[in-house]
UniProtKB/TrEMBL annotation:
It comes from Prosthecobacter dejongeii. NCBIfam families: NAPRTase_put (TIGR01513), PRK09243.1-2 (NF006695), PRK12484.1 (NF009131). Residues 7-137 form the Nicotinate phosphoribosyltransferase N-terminal domain. This is Nicotinate phosphoribosyltransferase. Pfam families: NAPRTase, NAPRTase_C, NAPRTase_N. Residues 160-336 form the Nicotinate/nicotinamide phosphoribosyltransferase domain. It catalyses: 5-phospho-alpha-D-ribose 1-diphosphate + nicotinate + ATP + H2O = nicotinate beta-D-ribonucleotide + ADP + phosphate + diphosphate. Transiently phosphorylated on a His residue during the reaction cycle. Phosphorylation strongly increases the affinity for substrates and increases the rate of nicotinate D-ribonucleotide production. Dephosphorylation regenerates the low-affinity form of the enzyme, leading to product release.
């Protein structure tokens, strides 16, 4: 299935585009922002991910003949063609020419902060909405989940095992990519390994053991076939006995110049079984053999096993990692921030709602992060047209009565960086390993109370004071203006 196409969109994006073309607004300059309103997993942070795939998708943004021919077949409610031939010709001649700024992948991010800012012809900025949300929402969700799982593992390797439970082939590869950004050491997904250069790991399943008359024979035969990849799955019949069989085969491996890499536990009381396995392995002369655990793990179960003193030192996490577990989606949105008029002036735009959290921020937004003594102290969303005054006051996005002044001694950086200028890629293309290192570095700059898995401290991230006042004024004006 081809997904690198402008048809990876909702129909209403195309009907709006046709409307912009029809009324002469297609080329009017506009600014949109992609952001989310609520942190996933009831956590204290999120990890930005997906930009690399966004860049690839935008670089291929063009309507092919077959796609235009398909659009010509879509009927309206009267049975006639939904799209005029002139509009389809316009799409066929279209070339990507927007500016894109983005927060780099691997950056810790917070609600309402624009992860992407798209500036350019209204029709183009509108047409890319759905695909950008599809890519950024999912990968940011999974990268955040992976970071939480890796945090619970306390530096021990986390292996991503989720391919068979992932949301289709494309979703599986994207999940492997995002999980690596979040901190996973490797994946079982060989296609993701080839596509993204992620280390791949895996040994055998229960079916291998079951296909032989005895477990011992199964382990021995596997050791002959794969002497440099022996992590034996020991819970097919009797887990403790399986560990003893692994030790027996481990001695045969050692006699041939190889080492037993470890054993894997996939069921039962993982805390008790792991300590028993550790004892048997150590007494058998294999203190360096790893104990790998799987079995529907997530950050909460790993944290619990750690508290119980489990002897596990490698963690295989599948379903609850690549699907997001209890969090089905990130919930990112894409909102219009400003429109440019013929006189060159920008008019900020705002979306109102009965829910304060759903009122959008107006203007052309940038995010400024403040750091003091090596610790992130707060993020201010400000209007790039008016700048970010000092001292900077950060207003809570949903409660203007709550604010925080950034220390004057704090240093700062603006997070949104150029990626495309007039449709041409101008950004950097870091390796996935560099992005993973950025995630690790970013998390080190968050206070431990923000990183904790349950009931984290709320990081100060909100709207800069003057922009907050402009927003309140626009809300008041909009509500007092008759809508006839």
């Amino acid at each position: 299935m081809k997904t690198d196409t402008p048809l990876l969109t909702d129909l209403y994006q195309l009907t709006m585009a046709a409307g912009y073309w029809k009324c002469g607004k297609a080329e009017q300059e506009a600014v949109f922002h992609l952001f989310f309103r609520k942190l996933p997993f009831a956590g204290g942070y999120a990890i930005a991910a997906g930009l690399g795939d966004v860049v690839k998708w935008l670089q291929g943004f063009r309507f092919a003949r077959a796609e235009l021919e398909y659009l010509a077949t879509i009927p309206g409610r009267d049975g006639k063609p939904l799209f005029e031939p002139g509009f389809l010709d316009y799409l066929g001649a279209m070339k990507w020419q927007c500016d894109v700024t983005a927060i780099p992948e691997g950056t810790v991010v917070f609600p309402h902060e624009p992860l992407l800012r798209i500036q350019g012809p209204l029709i183009q900025a509108q047409l890319v909405e759905t695909a950008l949300l599809n890519i950024i929402n999912f990968q940011t969700l999974i990268a955040t989940k992976a970071a939480r799982v890796c945090q619970a593992a306390q530096g021990e390797p986390v292996l991503e095992f989720g391919l068979r439970r992932a949301q289709g082939p494309d979703g599986a590869v994207m999940a492997s990519r995002a999980a690596f950004i979040g901190g996973c050491a490797s994946t079982s997904n060989v296609l993701a390994g080839m596509t993204h250069g992620i280390p791949v790991r895996g040994t055998h399943a229960h079916s291998w053991v079951m296909s032989f008359d005895t477990e011992l024979e199964a382990f021995a035969t596997y050791a002959e076939a794969m002497p440099n990849n022996c992590v034996f799955l020991v819970d097919t019949y009797d887990t403790v006995e399986g560990v003893r069989h692994a030790v027996e085969i481990g001695h045969r491996l050692r006699a041939q110049g190889h080492e037993l890499a470890g054993i894997r536990l996939d069921s039962g009381d993982l805390a008790w079984l792991s300590t028993e396995a550790r004892r048997i392995l150590d007494e058998g002369g294999f203190p360096q053999a790893n104990i790998v655990a799987s079995n529907d793990l997530d950050e909460h179960l790993i944290e619990s096993l750690k508290h119980q003193g489990a002897a596990i030192n490698v963690w295989g996490v599948g379903t609850k990692l690549v699907t997001g577990g209890e969090q089905a989606a990130l919930g990112g949105v894409y909102k219009l921030g400003a429109i440019r008029h013929e006189n060159g002036e920008w008019e900020p735009k705002i979306k109102l709602s009965e829910q304060a959290v759903k009122v959008s921020n107006p203007g052309i937004q940038q995010v400024r992060r403040f750091t003091l003594n090596g610790e992130f102290r707060g993020d201010a969303i400000y209007d790039q047209e008016t700048g970010c005054p000092a001292p900077t006051e950060i207003m809570h996005p949903a409660d203007p009565q709550r604010s925080k002044i950034m220390p004057e001694a704090a240093t700062h950086e603006d997070l949104l960086q150029p990626v495309f200028q007039r449709g041409q890629f101008v950004g950097e293309q870091p390796t996935l390993q560099e992005i993973q290192a950025r995630t690790r570095h970013q998390l080190q700059h968050l206070h431990a109370t923000v990183r904790r898995l349950q009931h984290p401290h709320e990081y100060p991230a909100g709207v800069e004071g003057s922009l907050a006042q402009k927003k309140l004024a626009m809300m008041a004006k909009a509500k007092s203006t008759p809508r006839l």
